[in-house]
Amino acid sequence: MRHIPEEELHAYLDQALSRGQCVEIECHLAECWRCRRERDTLASLRDRTTALLGVLGPRRLVVPPPVDAIRRQSRRLAFRRSVRWTGTWAAALGSAVFGGFALHSYLDRQSPARVAVASEEPAALLGGAPATPSPGAELPARHAVAPDRITLAPAEPTLVATPEIVRPRTTPDPLEPALRSSGRRVLDIRSLGSRRETDLYLSGLWKTVPWDEAEALTHNLVPHVTGLPITEVRVQPRSADERPIVIVSQQHASGVIIRTIEGPVDEVAGLVTEQLDRGDGLETSLPVRTPPEYLGIGSEIPRRSLRVMTVIGRLPVDTLNALRERLALQ
Amino acid sequence: MDDLERLYQTLYASVVRFLYRKVWDEDRAEDLAQEVFIRAMAHRPEKPRAWIFAVAANLARDEARAAIRRRKHLTLLGADPAPITSPGRSVEDAVERDEQMAQVKQALETLTPRDREVLLLWDAGLSYPEIASQSGLAVGAVGTTLARARKRLVEAHDRVEVRHAAHS
């Protein structure tokens, strides 16, 4: 005969079993004297426990305070809780709005057309090799066609006059100590990177345009130094039948921003003089002639407009002249 | 008067007793019991009985932690000030009751926290499923735990009584 387990008898005494289980147990108890004895033992244990715990109570008589007082307090608590929740939500909402506004302002300052890619490896500068995008780099589809145009993202034309945000990488060059000890001149990339690039001093209305628009405006004659990433293209429109003045900003392997200016001789000369007069380290290369423009065709006095392009930047003149050899019109 | 307010009238003393066995301070137990019912009326729980004892246990736990932080926590045997409260009781009765209480406290202290918790919840009148939901035990394990706790409490109390008799 299977006897009733002890914990089941406890549950039976505590009336924690279903009616069916109770009937089953009672049937068994009617037949089994051992389980009856066990039940009596457990019942006395249970009663003794209750008696012992009964001693552990407050000495004084416990009388509940008026329910109205509790109700009033609970209303206050509910009110405080709702105020706290409302405050929390309001703070969260305010933070979200402020964060969104700050993010928007930040992104607005860094519009895609002005974001430059990271500079090339320092070894490229030391070796003097032209900077090109690394072969494994993941570029948008249009970049695969023209490697020089890797940084120019389409953007809405905007008015100019924003500072450059390009920063070169400042990874320490492992070759540097050896080169210094050998007496060769080493260009300190980090010092270049720490120098803040200032914008050109431009007068008149200039527009920052995407590459495609620049091509359209210049009839596919956008000046640039081959092999350098382009960071920005600006144009100043002229008369309807005349090509605009174009300034193409590119990042040199040293991290310095160089600018190729192409336009009518007088305009380019005036622009370059204005920049050099500022005396903040800008240098210019010798100019290169670009295809002239024939204006007023069909009128009584057609004229030819001579155009040139030149490279300016905070680099030695020799370097700029070397870059001049790589100038191209696309 | 709604259900919760009726429950307040019937359950208040049990909650105070339950809390008293955890904080060993009558005034504090009453304060905490009122706090429990204030919260219950503000929160309106679906299962008020189990909810009330769960909150009471949590408040008692917080109280114990706070007491430890204040370095003022009461030991199980630490004697409360013993006011003679019930009218008609003699001083001898009160002293005897205090001795009894100290012995039971000591016996209760020997139980594991889980056994003690289950035993006190059962004594507060909670059903097995309510005890299970609060203690995290399976309903089937509540009976086993209770059986063990009862046995241990009685055995521990017997030992304490024997020791007390030997000393006196």
Summed up, what is this model?
The complex is a heterodimer of chains A (330) and B (168). With 330 residues, chain A is of the alpha+beta class. Chain A has eleven helices and ten strands.
Count, helices of chain A = 11
Secondary structure category of chain A: alpha+beta
Mean pLDDT over the residues of chain A: 76
Query: Which sequence of SSEs, written as H and E, runs from N to C of chain B?
Result: HHHHHHH
Rg of chain A (C-alpha, Å): 42 Å
Low-confidence stretches of chain A are: 113-153, 157-168, 189-196
Assembly type of the chains comes to: heterodimer
N-end to C-end Cα span of chain A: 102 Å
Largest sheet of chain B: none
- Helix-strand pattern of chain A, N to C? HHHHHHEHHEHEEEEHEEEHE
- Tell me roughly what share of residues is in helical segments of chain A: 40-55%
Distance between the termini of chain B: 53 Å
Radius of gyration of chain B over all CA atoms, rounded: 17 Å
User: Structural class of the secondary elements of chain B?
Assistant: mainly alpha
Shape of chain A: rod-shaped
Q: Describe the biggest sheet of chain A?
A: 8 strands, antiparallel
Low-confidence stretches of chain B: 73-79
- Give the total of beta strands of chain A: 10
Overall outline of chain B: globular
Give the largest interface pair and sizes: A-B, 34 and 47 residues
Helical percentage of chain B = over 70%
Description:
The complex is a heterodimer of chains A (330) and B (168). Chain A has eleven helices and ten strands. With 330 residues, chain A is of the alpha+beta class. In chain A, strands 1, 2, 4, 5, 6, 7, 8 and 9 form an eight-stranded antiparallel β-sheet that branches. In chain A, strands 3-10 form a two-stranded antiparallel ribbon. The model of chain A is unreliable at 113-153, 157-168 and 189-196 (pLDDT under 50). Chain A is rod-shaped, with a radius of gyration of 42 Å. In chain A, a hairpin with a 7-residue loop joins strand 8 (288-295) and strand 9 (303-313). Chain A has helices at 6-13, 19-31, 33-55, 67-109, 122-127, 141-145, 176-181, 189-194, 211-218, 265-277, 317-324; strands spanning 158-159, 207-208, 223-225, 230-236, 245-251, 257-264, 283-284, 288-295, 303-313, 327-329. Residues 73-79 of chain B have low confidence and may be disordered. Classes of the chains: A alpha+beta (330), B mainly alpha (168). Chains A and B meet through helix 1, helix 3 and helix 4 of A and helix 1, helix 2, helix 4, helix 5 and helix 7 of B.
